[in-house]
Amino acid sequence: MPERVETTTPDGVDYGWVMQMTFVITILIGAPIVAALSTTATLPTWMDRAEFAIRVGAPVWLVTSLIVFAYAKRKQTSST
């Protein structure tokens, strides 16, 4: 039987939860946004497609992470 994995009770914002939720929400919301915006761009090569995905996806990820962090921070302060 493997040893039990320890759990933590973080003081403040649970950054693991923030990272996980940012990942999931960015895929669920960000991927369709990038796909929709790519229909208006001319992307003849795979390099152009990759650069486009990074240019559009990075700001989507950043905004998502800030919103999730603000939500976690507000939820943490309202529950104490």
Number of extended strands: 0
Low-pLDDT runs of 5+ residues are: none
How many domains comprise the coordinates?
A: 1
Helix content: over 70%
User: What portion of residues belong to β-strands?
Assistant: under 5%
Global geometry = elongated
For the termini, the CA-CA separation is 37 Å
- Describe the main β-sheet briefly: none
Tally of separate helices = 2
Textual characterization of the structure:
The longest helix is centred in the C-terminal third of the chain and has 34 residues, at 46-79. The chain has helices spanning 15-38, 46-79. It has one domain. It is built from two helices and no strands. It is mainly alpha-helical. Helix 1 runs antiparallel to helix 2 (46-79). It is elongated.
Q: Keyphrases for this structure?
A:
80 residues
List the helices and strands and how they pair.
Layout (H helix, E strand, L loop, with lengths): L14 H24 L7 H34 L1
Helix pairs in contact: 1-2
Give a nutshell description of this structure.
With about 80 residues, the protein is mainly alpha-helical. It has helices at about 15-40, 45-80. It has one domain.
